[in-house]
Design brief:
The protein is an alpha/beta fold and 333 residues long. The chain has a single domain, classed as Alpha-Beta Barrel (TIM Barrel), CATH 3.20.20.30. The chain contains 12 helices and 11 strands. It has an 8-stranded parallel beta barrel with strand order 2-3-4-5-6-7-8-10, surrounded by 8 helices. Strands 1-11 form a two-stranded antiparallel sheet. α3 runs parallel beside α6.
């Protein structure tokens, strides 16, 4: 038996050269509304800090804006970097969101800093926060679950909301933790694909059922750059490659228009292509073939479409084409 593939959208809320955070927020809401109309299951934003081209640092605040401007699409974090925060505070924030927008909030969790070493120091983050990540996830679950006799601290609001948790990662560590806790697992294959195969194997092998999830549930992030003309898709891809090239070179800057040529060294090109190899680029039929290949490779239950782009309208169109393709794909029931 087969069933229709679930598909969702991850937005890093790009800030373009000459633009502002306000512009980026308006674009994010516009994209979320188009995603809702196009059938995407959820719209996630990810916690990042001290990155000029990314405007989603205050994740739960931004989620309130996005949820308030849409009607039915699930709004979530992809993710909140839990070691940066006290679990109680996240429970209260997401309990508030769930109370405002019942049945529409997702809480994706990661353990990376979402920024560089100076940023980690500014957030008062230390190694203990990371080492305690499994306990912090369980503590958060407790705050969002039903009241327990003798419990001294309660998340108000939050307690009893049972906001669904998703564990995000790019390693076998996160996969095994998600399996142990019985949580859905989302792999960051859109920028760190190296351990994808082994992580999914371990997740499925060691999965333990939970109240939230009775069977393994795999979400795979894919860069999707679609257009009505092949040349435009290639232009979008150059813009994506330029962003990753800046990462490789240690440059942090607002998003620039796609260049006509990248001017990269051979080793830089190899590194960028390694990082972005889980991508689908082209017109609809080409994107479909690439996504089918990725699904055959991963047996994913859900595709998380993502990709930054300088031109907002072309980005919206890309995700609309992607939705048309994704809506026609199936997975084993």
């Amino acid at each position: 038996m087969t069933q229709h593939l679930q598909y969702s959208l991850l937005d890093l809320v790009p800030v373009i050269q000459g633009g502002s955070a306000s512009d980026s927020f308006r674009n994010a809401l516009d994209l979320a509304r188009h995603a809702e109309a196009s059938g995407y299951s959820r719209f996630w934003v990810a916690e990042h800090h001290n990155i000029p081209g990314v405007a989603c640092a205050a994740t739960s605040v931004l989620m309130t804006y996005l949820a308030g401007g849409t009607e039915k699409i699930r709004i979530g974090s992809g993710g909140v970097m839990l070691p940066n925060h006290a679990p109680l505070l996240i429970a209260e924030q997401f309990g508030t969101l769930e109370s405002l927008f019942p049945g529409r909030i997702d809480l994706g969790l990661g353990r990376a800093p979402g920024g560089d070493t100076p940023t980690m120091r500014a957030m008062r983050r230390n190694r203990d926060n990371v080492d305690h990540f499994p306990h912090s996830v369980q503590e958060l679950q407790g705050y969002l679950g039903d009241r327990v006799a003798g419990q001294e601290v309660h998340a108000i609001p939050g307690e009893g909301t049972k906001v669904p948790l998703y564990l995000l990662g790019s390693s076998t560590y996160s996969a095994q933790l998600a399996a142990k806790l019985g949580l859905p697992f989302a792999f960051a294959s859109h920028f760190a694909p190296d351990h994808l195969g082994e992580a999914l194997r371990l997740y499925r092998k060691y999965f333990e059922s939970s109240d939230q999830c009775s069977t393994p549930y795999v979400m795979v992030a894919v860069n999707i750059l679609a257009a009505d003309e092949r040349a435009e898709a290639e232009r979008l891809e150059r813009g994506l490659h330029q962003q990753f090239l800046n990462m490789v070179r240690g440059r942090r800057q607002e998003m620039a228009p796609p260049p006509d040529q990248l001017g990269w060294a051979k080793w830089e090109e190899a590194e960028v292509r390694r990082m972005t190899r889980y991508s689908a680029v082209g017109v609809a039929d080409e994107v479909r073939d690439q996504l089918v290949s990725i699904l055959e490779d991963t047996q994913a239950d859900e595709i998380v479409a993502t990709a930054q782009a300088y031109d907002h309208e072309r980005r919206v169109r890309s995700f609309q084409i992607a939705a048309d393709v994704l809506a026609g794909l199936t997975v084993a029931a």
